[in-house]
Amino acid sequence: MGFDVICSSCGAPSSPSVGVCPFCKSVMTNKKSKDTPTITKIRELFDAGNIEKSLFIVQQAEKTKPKLLKNAAFILLYVQILIESDGPSSKMRSILTQSYLNDVENAQLSEYREIIEAKNNLSHGMKDIGEQALINIIRRSPKNAHALFILGSHLCWIENEYARAIQLLERCVVQRPNWLKANGCLAALYSKTDNEVLAQKYIRKCIALSKDAGTKEYFKSLVS
C-alpha cells in the first residue's frame, strides 16, 4: 500500500482512499497534488489577507480558464475566498457540487459542502442543527479555520456566548492569521468583555491588515 496522503493536523500518513485521518479524524489531503501557477498566485494573495484582489483574480480565472473548475485545489481555494468575502452561498454550493461530482472521493470537497450547509442552517436557539453540524466538523477537523470562524462569529453575534466565541476565533486566527474579519471579531469580543489589552492588540492587527483606507481609519479611531 502506498502512503500518498499526509494528515495536516497530526502528520500521520495513510493511503489515498482513506480521506479521514484514522488517528486524529481530520480530513486528509493528497501530498502529491500540485498547484498551477494561477492557483499559486491566488493562494499567495489569499494567505496575505488580500481577499479583494484574490477574489478578483479567482473570478477572472473562472472565466478565462474554465478547466480550473475541474481542479479540486482551485475549487477549495475559490470557496474559501468566497467565505472570507461573504460571497453568496448559492455560488459556493454550485461550484462545490459540480466539483464533488467530478471527484466524489475528495474528503475536503465533501467537508466544505458540509460547512456551507451548516452555515445555512444556523439559527437562534438550543436546537440549532447548523451549530451542531459545525461542532461535529470541528471535532473531526480541529484546524479548519472556516468552520471555526463561522461557528465563532455565530456564537458571538447571535447567541452572545462570548467565551466560546473567543476560544473558537483564537483557534481560527492561528490557522488564518491575516484574516481581517476574524481579527476584527476578536477585537470586538475582547472589547465587549472588558479586556482592553487584547482588544487593542487585535485592533492594531486590523490596522496592519486593512487594505482599504476607510477601514484602516476606522480601526485607527479605536486605538486607545
Give a short summary of the structure.
The chain has about 220 residues and is mainly α. It has a three-stranded antiparallel β-sheet with strand order 2-1-3, with no helix packed on it.
Please characterize this protein's 3D structure:
The model has no long low-confidence stretch (mean pLDDT 89). The protein has 3 domains: 1-32, no CATH class; 35-120, Serine Threonine Protein Phosphatase 5, Tetratricopeptide repeat (Alpha Horseshoe); 127-224, Tetratricopeptide repeat domain (Serine Threonine Protein Phosphatase 5, Tetratricopeptide repeat), CATH 1.25.40.10. The chain has helices spanning 37-47, 51-64, 72-84, 89-102, 107-120, 129-140, 145-157, 162-175, 180-192, 196-209, 213-221, and strands at 5-6, 13-14, 29-30. Helix 5 (107-120) packs antiparallel against helix 6. The protein has a 3-stranded antiparallel beta sheet with strand order 2-1-3, with no helix packed on it. The chain is an all-alpha fold. The chain contains 11 helices and 3 strands. Strand 1 (5-6) and strand 2 form a beta hairpin.
Number of β-strand runs: 3
Mean pLDDT: 89
Order of helices and strands: EEEHHHHHHHHHHH
CATH superfamily of the largest domain: Tetratricopeptide repeat domain
Number of helices: 11
Strand order of the largest sheet: 2-1-3
Q: Please, how many domains?
A: 3
How is the main sheet built?
3 strands, antiparallel
Structural class: mainly alpha
The best one-word shape is globular
Radius of gyration from the alpha-carbon trace, in angstroms: 18 Å
N- and C-termini, Cα separation:
59 Å
Helix content: 55-70%
**CATH topology title of the largest domain:** Serine Threonine Protein Phosphatase 5, Tetratricopeptide repeat
Strand content: under 5%
CATH architecture of the largest domain: Alpha Horseshoe
CATH class of the largest domain: Mainly Alpha
Low-confidence stretches: none
